[in-house]
């Protein structure tokens, strides 16, 4: 191993770093001057030749600017050492020397997560360009659905000819659905008989898909009963194992495939996705026990079969392997439109933030598309815990088979295929998948994926980095994975609310990155974790800046310097500098000005919806008035909504609670701009009110799709009148009450 040539290479983007650091320095000076102006204009108004504003509006506006400045400072380290990485899989050792790999795929609801899509993910994982005897695939079905079990049994039957086809012709796109769609048209083997084999395998795929669309009536009835009951016993079935002793001529060697449905009871917490992953971690440990794990969401297909080898270029590098916990790949999506009006591609994360934090000991864990070292999930490790059986059982539970696996690299999968061994194995897996197994253990506390928050990825990754582990961001030119993005406003914001609520569960705990992180990891990496954790608090300044200056405009109260003042240039610089820097980042990362504008709009919408409701949920969870919940976003495409998405039109078919904040703020700014502008023109004073007029105008321009949905559209995707009318009433109440308050604070 020591004689291996280089497996990877990293390049620091020095020019980008210099530009980012320079902008940070200049913008910081501007922010310091802005803070000086705010304080001096209130404390010494005569010195600055300004009118002293009322205390309450001044305090709220200044507070919002301070919060924005604080969050902006936390964002800066992302840009100080951006880097990219190149892998050299051809330099890896021979296949028989590669380590084992377990693939974990998670699903929960066959209605929101159609079995055909889930099986495409499973099949693509089975077809990885990796030695099949070293590969095992586990599907976690949290719904305990007979439909999903029926589907995975059928998937095994199709996977055999499909995997053989992919290996025979060197197919790179190994998800059948993607391969047979327009995205996979250019992927061919170049052989004379290729088209014949392709048509044959396509016909088999269509038969397989039809079988999933029409499962047996008994299966459907049993599935409905299981979902209504919300409880089910543990069930584990090994669909196929690596029994190579019986390999016949022409038979395709296949990886192990296992179905795992953990036990669920209403009176036992199941800890959402983290609980499912921990069950897979335990069950797989007594079957294959591979040292590395790939975690995939059920809709995240394998797009590049070589991703495992790319990840091993880092995990097998002797210079970093001892401290490397996981290799994170970006999440890419196959159903993103050119405009991406909802910002579903997550480009700010995987194009801007993750390459930056990769230069600071590595990116955060991102829920899916990562190759994890199994040992990293076992807390401080067996070596530090000692070998006392009683101590290990207090930590890991009562399973002797699991405890044995802690000292082994890999199980002999072929040994499980005699009947006696199989029965014993299944009994043990059911114990490991039971509700009671984790009682009085450290699972979810120190071992495995951690339970504190519904965003188990953020919290688990944070604790790994605090323990000294590193991570790597691998972003090859060809996407390694392709998933299904949310393509309607409702799912996008509901998903964002769930993430926000989960982040605040960490913030309001003893693991708050602001307190827990600085002494345990490098300061710049800690600041990046702090930015993501405190991101939900953008809702406060955005709400304040969308309401307070507008109310003051209608009451002729000046909050910003008059347009002829040098201080107005300062405020303009801070605002324009932020916008242009974000535009530059997006364009240099391969985006467009339209993408930048859409991302800016969605940031504002998320701030007053996802961040706002997520913050409320987080506070309620902290106070104990509400239990954490995990709402699945549907992977089933609504054709009408998807058509609007492709055309770049917002679809406002969403809960009224989601629409109320954004619609109310748009109406408020529409009123303040038109009435305030007319009033200023009629009575003078436009120099003093110009800043507030421009602010309202900017909000309206950014919010044009909402205005269009309220006034100009008549299709099903418009803003319902049942939402617009209550919002109008709410705005009138706010303006009336706010004006009365301002009369007494002037």
Largest sheet: 8 strands, mixed
Count the beta strands.
Answer: 13
- The shape is elongated
Strand order of the largest sheet: 5-6-4-3-7-11-9-12
- Percentage of β-strand residues: 5-15%
Structural class: alpha/beta
Radius of gyration equals: 28 Å
What is the overall pLDDT average?
A: 89
Give the helix tally.
28
The helix content is 40-55%
Unreliable stretches: 225-229, 242-249
- What's the end-to-end separation, in Å? 76 Å
What labels describe this entry?
746 residues; alpha/beta; eight-stranded mixed beta sheet; three-stranded mixed beta sheet; 28 helices; transmembrane; cellulose synthase (UDP-forming) activity; Cellulose synthase; transmembrane helix
Quick synopsis:
With 746 residues, the protein is an alpha/beta fold. The chain is 52% helix and 8% strand. The chain is built from 28 helices and 13 strands.
Explain this structure.
- With 746 residues, the protein is of the alpha/beta class.
- Among the domains are: 12-80 and 539-603 and 639-745, no CATH class; 100-222 and 234-300 and 372-425, no CATH class.
- The chain is 52% helix and 8% strand.
- It has 28 helices and 13 strands.
- It has an eight-stranded mixed beta sheet, with helices on both faces.
- Helix 3 links the parallel strand 3 (101-107) and strand 4.
- Helix 1 (14-43) packs antiparallel against helix 21, helix 2 packs across helix 18 and helix 25 runs antiparallel to helix 26 (686-702).
- The longest helix is centred in the N-terminal third of the chain and has 30 residues, at 14-43.
- The protein is elongated.
- It starts with 7 loop residues before the first strand and ends with a helix.
- 46% of the residues are buried.
- The model is unreliable at 225-229 and 242-249 (pLDDT under 50).
